[in-house]
Amino acid sequence: MSETGQPVLHRLRELIEADPDGFARKVFARLFGASPALRDMFPAHLSHLREAFTQVLDHVLEVLPADDGHDDLIELLAQLGRDHRKYGVTDKHYDQMAQALVTESAALMGTEWTQETAETVAQAMLLTTGVMRGAAQSAPGPATWRARVVQKFIINRERAVVRLAAVDPVPAFHAGQYLETRIPQWPYQWRNLSPAIPPNEAGELEFHVRAVPGGHVSTAIVKETAPGDVWTFAQAHGTLHVDPDRPVLMVAGGSGLAPLRALLLDMAQRADSPATHLFYGARFPGELYDLAVLRELATTNPWLKVTAVVDEAADPWWIDGAPAPAQWGFEIARGKVGDIAARYGDWSDRQVLIAGPADMISSTKLRLRLAGVPSDRMRHDPVHH
Ligand SMILES: Cc1cc2nc3c(=O)[nH]c(=O)nc-3n(C[C@H](O)[C@H](O)[C@H](O)COP(=O)(O)OP(=O)(O)OC[C@H]3O[C@@H](n4cnc5c(N)ncnc54)[C@H](O)[C@@H]3O)c2cc1C
């Protein structure tokens, strides 16, 4: 970045900061004006998209003129480029986006827009869209792939298990990763879901979905998904994995069990799996829906120990007829799963994998840190919000 370029980008950032959403609206209006078909590829409500867009743009205008942070910025933009493949974004759209950004920047800067300013801004915008485009072009595998629902069952009023068989070749991903997922009931909404079984040659997938209150996609899955539905998947993300050289502590809350279960099933196929203790927590005993599978895993894999944890001792009336967890022979503790895990023993030599709702992840991390587990030894996925 030239010395004269720095103040230009700082100034543009300052002007955008006064009304970021207004700027984003104008850029999108210009973009969709140039390519009306592009509008149809995005959700009906664009507020989330605009928010993400303004955050990235702010970050670009902050980091580009700075002395460091460029590598991370390039990686972030590359990831965004790969993410946008699923919307059907093409090279032409990147040109139009760069053009829209420059035009709206010119309008915003008014009399401050000189030949030199124009060159600096154009260079920054072309770099940004160029990195995204380049990463999208060089990303391996197809942008999306499909699988058909073959079975669905309801576990309780808010939770379902959905099994699918791939229709297209499945791009490589690892046990413990999550997939960008779209269902036919909400054709423009992408959500992250974690397969509960490892990827396999037969292309079988299983998901455990909890209907969050007021949640569009999760409620539709629990209430409406039926065999025959075709789901679309895009990229796999996530860094949850097991390093074979170190014993493992896993802490799962609710549907957070899914990625850890996929890892355990994967470990069960290997000869060298390290000692692993899983704490699996739910509000009520009847919500510990997967104990039968865990029992089977623990019986055949002596490296695995499971402790079930519940907030409440008894089920409410609406959990009807769930088998008592004690019948599976696991010890059952009462409390918050992170607290119970942290108090249980010395985990300072362990690698720790945590999965579940955002508040459960942060409280578990805090408890374990206080109990002597270094932060860099704890892994979890990005939290939900
Ligand atoms: C890495 C990752 C992996 C995930 N894996 C799974 C999985 O395997 N199974 C699964 O069921 N879900 C999983 N989720 C959550 C899933 O991606 C959706 O966020 C969730 O299903 C809600 O989507 P929705 O369309 O129903 O809700 P939206 O319509 O997007 O949201 C409606 C309301 O619910 C709130 N909300 C959104 N998400 C949550 C939440 N998780 N908890 C509480 N309130 C929420 C919103 O703030 C909003 O008020 C995962 C999320 C992440 C980030």
Automatic annotation (TrEMBL):
Organism: Gordonia caeni
Pfam families hit by this protein: FAD_binding_6, Globin, NAD_binding_1
Alphabetized CDD domains for the sequence: Mb-like_oxidoreductase, O2ase_reductase_like
Gene3D superfamilies in UniProt: Globins, Nucleotide-binding domain of ferredoxin-NADP reductase (FNR) module, Translation factors
Enzyme Commission (EC) number: 1.14.12.17
Full protein name: nitric oxide dioxygenase
Domain Globin: 1-137
Protein family (similarity comment): Belongs to the globin family.
